[in-house]
């Protein structure tokens, strides 16, 4: 592990992006996964991570009853214990406070299913279709205190096809996410902030 940066990955669900990241961190990759952390004990990605030999942890948000700072005070513990140098959000469905984000400023990445700065937040595929956009895609950015707003580190673009629905568009964007996110992490872990541009 010497010389490799350690990556903690936060998930809430099946963990498809998480697994593409974990599977990419082999050989001469400058990073290695050290933790997969979820706010949901039933997240399918936890089993996948464990089977891949990655340490897992759960901090359920529900007992904190909306007290985000108390939740985050617990969430941060396994990350710090893991010695993570980089934190990747991969389908982590909790909005993080500025206090949490500032602790990992310059170390935290997120993938978002739109061509930022377009369509921050939810329902990005439906919104792109409603707007009549000719192209859509996904973005990887550094996480800042403003939702989906940090410096862009990569984008993948694809054409919107006649007859696309939010579901068909989402499926094609997810394929691009699985290419883009590992490519950005590879550069980021090597201290290269040059954006990765695909499509």
From TrEMBL:
Catalytic-site annotation from UniProt: 112
Entry annotated with the keyword Transferase: yes
Family listed: Belongs to the GART family.
Highest taxon in the source lineage: Bacteria
One GO MF term attached to the UniProt entry: phosphoribosylglycinamide formyltransferase activity
GO cellular component, one term: cytosol
PROSITE patterns: GART
Protein name (database record): Phosphoribosylglycinamide formyltransferase
Binding site for (6R)-10-formyltetrahydrofolate: 68, 110
HAMAP family reported in the protein's UniProt record: PurN
Site description Raises pKa of active site His, residues in chain: 148
Protein EC: 2.1.2.2
Biological process according to GO: 'de novo' IMP biosynthetic process
Alphabetic keyword roster: Purine biosynthesis, Transferase
Originating gene: purN
